[in-house]
Amino acid sequence: YDAKRSGSQVVRYDADRHGDSSGRLALVEELRAGIAGGELVLHHQPQVDVETRRTVGVEALVRWQHPTRGLLAPVHFLPLAEVHGLMGVLTDAVLAQSIAQAAAWHRTGRDLRISVNLSASNLLDTGLPGRVAELLELHALPPSALVLEVTETVLLSDPDRSLAVVGALTELGAGVSIDDFGTGYASLTYLHQLPVGELKLDRSFTADLLTDSRAAAIVASTIRLAHQLGLRVVAEGVEDPATLLHLRALDCDESQGYLHSPPLPAAELEQWLDCQDGRRERDLDGARPAL
Ligand code: C2E
Ligand code: MG
Ligand code: MG
Ligand code: MG
């Protein structure tokens, strides 16, 4: 035992680490129990056709209804789930809820697509496409009504394995979308090699569209090339009518963002859809240049 090395700094460092990690581990265990106990809830954000102003899809965004801490946003628990091996069960729960919800909407005549986010570890899980197929069959949802969102960085981390999973998902007939496009390393030149049907323009580009001519040039050429490759383009983070108008001029297909609606619980989304016709008029009024 070396007395000289047991300085207070070392002890404090260890104590901090211990306190920190035991807190984290407690939260991990709460999350594990919460997933099994049905504490994950989905909010749904509409994806609006830029031309017709109709809602054609929704993105399912997970929240954790924690028994004491309230409703937690993904940033507070997804990183933990990824590091501690819970992403598989988390995604299975999200997929089960999303597919059941979309199927219920389809039965009432609302033929919405539903988009579900996948994480890095999901794309290395070769059993995932089979479980997706079972859920689609169980709920009798047409595979084309499901879109899986993956980010470029995730695709490129282990391209061989993730492309096998992505390929199997598209073989089922589900759609695959590149989320947050423009923030990672993917380039348009390799897009044609991927079996994807949709690009989601990251909201950093959407936000700068009106004020930064370089961002506008990137968006314009991305949309043009995506269309030439047969891909649909969804703009994320659309917050104002002028941006929507600009996106329409650039031939962007779909718009998602606070302009239309924040992510909502299913029942509230249904109410929102019910009064969407009136809302469509209002958005148009806002987007019409003053004469
Ligand atoms: P994302 O997939 O890019 O989702 C869009 C995020 O932007 C959502 O945040 C949404 O609430 C937010 N957003 C939507 N419209 C606007 C807008 O007009 N302005 C601004 N500033 N933000 C807007 P959220 O729900 O906190 O989700 C954050 C991220 O967490 C998602 O980013 C996605 O990467 C991840 N995530 C969410 N749900 C899931 C899930 O079920 N599974 C996995 N693996 N990841 C998920
Ligand atoms: Mg997404
Ligand atoms: Mg995104
Ligand atoms: Mg984004």
UniProtKB/TrEMBL annotation:
Q: Coiled-coil region(s) at which residues? A: none
Positions of the EAL domain: 24-277
Protein name as it appears in the record: Bifunctional diguanylate cyclase/phosphodiesterase
What is the originating organism of this protein? Modestobacter muralis
Query: Which classification does the entry list for the species?
Result: Bacteria, Bacillati, Actinomycetota, Actinomycetes, Geodermatophilales
